[in-house]
Amino acid sequence: MALALTEPGCPSGLAPAETPESPRADPAAFVRRNSSGQDTLELMVNGARCAGCIQKIERGLLALPGVIDARLNLSTSRLRVAWSPGALAPSAITDALSRMGYGAAAFDPAAAMRQVDEEGRNLLRYLAVAGFAAMNIMMFSVPVWSGDGEMGEGTRTLLHWISALIAIPAALYAAQPFFRSAWQALRVRRANMDVPISLAVLLTLGISIAETLQQGEHAYFDGITMLLFFLLIGRYLDHRLRERARTAARDLLALQAVTASRIGADGRVVAISAGEIVVGDSLVLAAGDRAPVDGVVLEGVSELDSSMLTGETIPHAARVGSAIHAGVINLSQRLVIRATARAQDSSVAELARLIEAGEQGRARFVRLAEKAAALYVPVVHSLALVTFLAWLFGPSLLRLGGFDVSDVGLGVALLNAVAVLIITCPCALGLAVPAVQVVATGRLFKRGVLVKSGDALERLAQVDVAVFDKTGTLTLGKPRLVSDLAPEVLQAAAALARVSRHPLSRALVEAAGPGVAAKDAREVAGEGVEAGGMRLGRRAFAAPNCEDASDDAAELWFSNGNTPPERFAFVDALRADAVQTIAALRARGIAVELISGDRPVAVEAAAREAGIEYWSGAASPADKTARLAALRAEGKKPLMIGDGLNDAAALAAAYASASPGTALEASQAASDIVLQGAQLMPLVEAIDVAKMARTRTLENIQFSALYNIVAAPLAAAGFLTPLIAALAMSGSSLIVTLNALRLQLRWSRI
């Protein structure tokens, strides 16, 4: 805990440290006991902004006696701590966080989202103020520039004062994000990119005010507002891209039914919140209901749709004693189940924890701009300081050496140092990445690809393995009738199928077209439908004397009196461009795998048809996550493509991830990109664009570095005033933006 005691707050200085005097409520009321017998506490952490915060908080809490696990999800500010019962008081956790410089409160997803939304609104207000001020000040600055030698001193001073009245409050307001960040960095004895920006703003304002008071020729109110306007554009674009990276865990937990029907001691059924369910409660699950918690069937026979949990396309029967997982859908008959876990301990909640673990790993990804910024800050500070000292003390040192030079004074030394700070201000660097990302994401959106975060493009450009889910991803996720049957047989069977919720019955009805349902039809849970001597369903129910088929396809059997039974075979067809997509990925040097929770025989058939050599069936969510972890341990950078609830954890754990537009909302939330439409080829286009975007980003960063290498010495030598420095800085930002637009032109030729 030594680090936490000596350096409170975010290691990068991006957020304030909590003051020791802040009151903290006792979190004991929020402690829960998990299925492993451990005490757990979920908190919302204030002030955690970077990967360094994750390491600092987790290491600090794991050092506490008895703490077994500590995980911080940066996107939701959610901290989950588990410890041995009785090993420590819950208040010790919040005390430790306070010593590390972070605030903590009971986890509230709505409050976390409000905090993110408020940050975006504030940035937009700062940007609007800076833009308004820059445009209006230009009206008074242009006459000063163009009237050099002709404008009277009184007129020039009046225009300077009008500019000052606009610029001073506008700059002090619009620069607040940089001031706060710089102050917090300095408090922990660090320097980030916002420190030189803040110095440039304050010093330039000070020099301009002094020049105006002395009726001088040069004031730089226009340059400083322009500087803030460009910087805030980059800051706001970056925020918008980060905001798209919504948390999947919150959407996943929303899949659990929010209400449940509990049978009370008097036998009456009462509607309750899912959070009120305790182990042992008897719950009624009507046809079409989603199970709110894990449980065991006490009464009834029905069929369950577990496709979103397991990826298995065929519903399975549920009878007395059958286990039910939270999130499955009851398809046919009423069930009574006994709860075996609370909502927060269900299988869906466990999936949410797997997702958060994956998101946590992604939060440690360091973007190109952040790497460049790590080099930028110390170099700029050192150069500005050397410039100031050289101009202030250089003449004295030269005179000692026998040179006849005169002092330039504090004002000139300060002016040249400010010029260095302004001309090296990271406008171009701040726009280098967001400008490219905005162009790339905009063009991809027009092609039906939604990119949810800026760093997703950087990661997508580096993938070398593509891991596909089968059901609903590589395939359409929808059974399709492939048997060639007589029209009258098809219509007769469809009359029975119209009274069933079974996915194969729905596929049969779709193939048959419009029609009427059979009268007096009765559905036998887990078996099929019968009416007037006709039966449609499992082989043992409708055609017990027929032999099993050898093709392992999904099937329904239909019998009608004494006529021979008919078999209806169904397949989950590949997407139209699946084979083309696999071939295109391989052509780009990307290996392809298929891993699914469906039956191995179905997975093997899909892999063979798509041309995929490595495949795995009957895989659980943990199996998928383990496979991705194994690939990353080998040094690979896997791309996961999936659509179901069973894929959400793997999507979050992958280096990069994608899901089709038909995917469950939780899976889309866990993905970096979403493919709108039924095609897979946009995935290949997204990879191509991501690689080109990475190239443009590197070019922009290299240009920013070259610009600083050329411009900074000129400013240090006194050849550039702060006004010229601001114009040069703005020009560099324009060049970076135009280079980003080249991506749009080149991409249109693909």
Order of strands across the main sheet? 15-27-26-25-16-23-24
Number of domains: 5
Estimated structural class? alpha+beta
Strand portion: 15-25%
Average predicted confidence as pLDDT: 77
SS summary, helix count:
26
What's the CATH topology label of the largest domain? Rossmann fold
CATH architecture of the largest domain: 3-Layer(aba) Sandwich
Oligomeric nature of the chains: single chain
The gyration radius over C-alpha positions equals 33 Å
CA-based shape: elongated
CATH homologous superfamily placement of the largest domain: HAD superfamily/HAD-like
Task: Summarize this entry quickly.
The chain is α+β, with helices and mostly antiparallel strands and 750 residues long.
